[in-house]
Amino acid sequence: MRWGVLQFPGSCDERDALAACARTGAEGRLVWHEERDLEGIDAVVVPGGFSYGDYLRAGAIARFSPAMEAVSEFAAAGGPVLGICNGFQVLCEAGLLPGALLLNESMRFTCRQLELIEENPDRFHSPEGHKPISFSTLSIPAKHGEGRFWAPEEVLDELEARGQVAYRYAPGQNPNGSARDIAGVRNEGGNVVGLMPHPEHAVDPLTGSTDGLRVFEAVAAAGVAA
Amino acid sequence: MSVEVAKHRELGLTDSEFELIVEKLGREPNDVELAMFSLLWSEHCAYKHSRKLLRRLPTEGERVVMGPGENAGAVDVGNGHAIAFKVESHNHPSAVEPFQGAATGVGGILRDVFAIGARPIAILDSLRFGELDSIRSRHLLDGAVRGIGHYGNSIGVPNVGGEIYFEAPYEHNCLVNAMCLGIAKQDDMVRAAAAGVGNAVVLMGASTGRDGIGGASVLASAELGEGDDAKRPTVQIGDPFEESKVLECCLELLEKGLLVSLQDLGAAGLTSSAGEMASAGGVGIDLDVAKVPLREADMEPFEIMVSESQERMLAVVEPAKVGEVVAVCEKWQTGSAEIGVVTDSGQIRILREGEVVGEMPVEALVDGCPLYDLEPAAPDEWIYGNRASLRSDATSEETLLALLASPSIASKRWAFEQYDSVVGSRTVRRPESADAAVLQIPEAGNAIAVSIDGNGRRVACDPHAGTIEAVLECAQNLACVGAEPLGLTNCLNFGNPEKPIPAWQLDQAVSGLAEACAQLGVPVVGGNVSLYNEGPEGPIYPTPVVGMVGELPDPAVTCGSAFAREGEAIGLLGPFEPGLAGSELAKLRGELDTGLPRSDITAVAGACATVREAVRAGKLSSAHDISDGGLACALAESAIGGELGCRVDLQPLRERGCSPEEALFGEGAGGFLLSGARESLEALGATLLGETGGSTIEVAAGDRSFTVGVGTAERAWLSLGERLSEADV
Asked: Nearest CA to CA, how far is A140 from chain B (Å)?
């Protein structure tokens, strides 16, 4: 298992994401934004940060990078892709995931440890070694200024009906006003997952929690199955 | 001639300074030279009113890797690695335009740290505003917090701690001090001294514009007053994306060994960075302003030399390596231009397309500014006024809730939740969970702790004793997480040093700083001085902000400030002799006056060592330094953090001669509030006060005994956010 973690100018969390991949027992390397070749990579992380300064709109420029072209093809072929925070925004901008991320309701950047509910319907595989985990709770930090998930009501209904809601904020913990407390979504195939909270910052008991490892494992498993 | 005289005065030089420049040049300076001299001879660059005082500070220590004079100080953290750190002010720019002022303050201190080859790993900030009921203060607070968050969050450096005080003397002159820590391999570190005649001088990063001309050096070296809005164009504009690219670019260049030396462009821009590099290396530098990439084509040579455009770095590079340097800059999509050469002339020469437009001896420009002696005089009385906001007959419960809700004591969650505190995967103790931030350092197999403190009100009461307390509070904070101090940085924020009272405050504070550091054995590895912090109503509280970095052997063995378990003993340790002088309660009652008891530094150091060793041995469940609001507030904070009540009796403090009120709300250095197993606390020699448990804070203190619910206390303590969101910020 070999992860590739994209690196854009302005990425912040790419080294942390790479270290998190290593903690799952896999190998990994950084993929420079100008690279077009994902040869030898089994799963991709589009990491957090402020790619290209988030100028114009969060994720709006990064989606046009050569590396993202490669990721689109990789995802279309069923390869597992995890977008975290800015990476989630990039995947939405690239049309790989539904919805959009708007400015937080508070109009402020918010950094907070919070509880996430993992929604893992039976048709999506769960990580090896775990029972099918429906509705288990993960403690993971969120930190963003533009993380309010939004989609038209009918799209939200469809996402819920198809089991595409991957993570929700626990009741009362929605930090940004996201529609229906949605913190993360998956594509129809289940191989592309994006979420605003940062699982790569929840992989070490010393820094607060190891629940984030399960997010990486779940994506890897979904991709292997696809 | 009369026009010329007006010009140097306009630029902040005195007549005698101007005459000295003429003497050193052997002629009158032209416009380019005068602009450059005026900046390097400003207080901000030349430290002309503080340099003599700063010689008192102890700067030597076994673990010191880089001391004062470099872009940042650094201490040895083991395994060939060093922790670089420094605190710097951006007060006047923030008072004029808080968002950009604070943002570029963070940008500047980050550059200081990566300029020596260290990757920034943490930011802390120390902020001061006027009282929260002032619209202006809320506006400045909101802007500064947004600015700090904007820059630090965007660049991926966690903000792990800090402090905010609200006091009327900061109403017209807020303080924005930012501290940055970085980690470096000692072998990869680089100094700022230019070297190697014939080597190229390369300007990297953003292009140069008219923004910030005279910003830090002009704004920062005079009092604020009427017409400050007109100074807004002198405030620099930050671009954290550019800084992020420049940061990665510089670290890659250093890792590849492509740079001889590196310096950031801060106050006074190219003038100070080139001048200081040449001075430190004992060489000359020729710069051609025509080669500087510009935002506006028609900039004059003097404008190019003094521009304070952000996100720029100056490097000295061997000619054969210039091509490789340019290639790395291109990879990171940031600028690079070879703009000059190192010479053996001992002169700074400014050229435009080969034609000399300015030529000055480095020695005169950088080190020639006269240093002044202060003319200090102690004030006869309390000069800052008093404003009562709490009735003197308030009950103990009312008093505690008023103190917890007082903006300077209340939780700063509203602010620090706007900062990314976790990026980098090092943050073991986040804001509010312990007295100091703790960061793991896997590179050295250990951890560091860092704290920033400086209660200006207490320094105003007695600048010498108050400054000692600021250092002791840092040391106590580090002890609470099990860390031993390695080094200290400081930012001295004071009023106009040409006036007797601020001069006296500065003189006394530096003495206190020197005394505390010497007795604790903590070297001062760097710092910054910010003078002329005055508004129409007088000087700010004298505010030495102290940042201390310590080491702990195992990141897994540290301690928080919250009560952890029901039924554990609560104890008091240390030479704590609380008094109401200079306390938060004295402020709320409008009873502030001069005078503060002197701390016993050696006794506090002993208590710190006891607590540190107990934490490292895993003997404590919580450790909290007793600070603003006294023991009652410390108890409430530990209870709120642990969602766990307590029952204590303060009789032991009364036996030390304290009144009930002093025991509850009195302040002073040296007190630790601990919880843990009874036998552990007894073994440490702690005075047992009671035990944890229940959902109320129950305190027996003679006729001032009280009981208050933990939830009630928490609501008061968390009220800052509500007050700010209700207000029209």
From this structure: 11
